[in-house]
Amino acid sequence: MRSLVPFIKEDLKEKFVFVSGPRQVGKTYLAEQLVKQLKGKYYNWDDAEDRALI
Q1: Contact by Cβ (8 Å): 19, 12
Q2: What is the dihedral sign for C-alpha 50, 51, 52, 54?
Q3: In terms of pTM, does the model score above 0.90?
Q4: Are 51 and 27 in contact (CB under 8 A)?
Q5: What are the pLDDT digits (tens) for 21-31?
Q6: Are 12 and 6 within 8 A, CB to CB?
Q7: Parent domain of 46
Q8: How many structural domains does the chain have?
Q9: Which residues contact 20 (CB under 8 A, 6 or more apart)?
């Protein structure tokens, strides 16, 4: 996953990026770390409050 980080960061400058894959491979961790680095906001579709904001 770490090898994808530069590509994801570059794509985020222009568009949404959706991360998918099998369970337990680090998708959420990756997203949360990127959000921290980029000083953004992480929204979780499974959270009712976040879903309302989305």
Answers
A1: no
A2: positive
A3: no
A4: no
A5: 999 999 999 99
A6: no
A7: 2-53
A8: 1
A9: 27
